[in-house]
Amino acid sequence: MNSNSKLIRKNPSRLVGRSERVGKRREPISSVETVILKIAKVRYLAFRERFGRDPFPDEPLFFDPSFDEPTAPPSDEMRDQLLAAASATRSDCVPLLRFFGLQ
Predict the structure, then answer these.
(1) CB < 8 Å & 24+ apart, contacts of 98-102
(2) pLDDT confidence of 89, banded at 50, 70, 90?
(3) How far apart are CA 15 and CA 38, in angstroms?
(4) Is 58 or 26 the better-scoring residue by pLDDT?
């Protein structure tokens, strides 16, 4: 066994050989991004419940429930939906309101 074989690890993102790194290092997800993903999940489920199907990529996850087709809501309705989703996920709503421009 040569001296380099002791340095080779099973996990490809770890150090291999002397100074080579293989694999891809992921950047940490910010807290706002994490909360947005949680909110998107809640709104995705609300969309499925209301319209009986998954949303298409160009359809809003925040929608006016009074319409039969997915329609973007007025900003006050979007704010209410955002606050409800934040409450359901126990998320801080202040960064979300700032992110969506609904302060």
Answers:
(1) 99/32, 99/36, 102/75, 102/78
(2) very high
(3) 34
(4) 58
Query: DSSP labels for 13-54?
Result: TSEETTTEE-S-PPPPPPHHHHHHHHHHHHHHHHHHHHHSSP
CB 85 within 8 A of CB 100: no
CA distance 17 to 5: 8
For the chain, the domain total comes to 1
Please report the pLDDT score of residue 4 as a whole number: 52
Contacts of 32 (CB under 8 A, 6+ apart): 95, 96, 99
Residue 58 placed within a domain: yes
Q: Is residue 5 part of a domain?
A: no
In a domain, 38, yes or no: yes
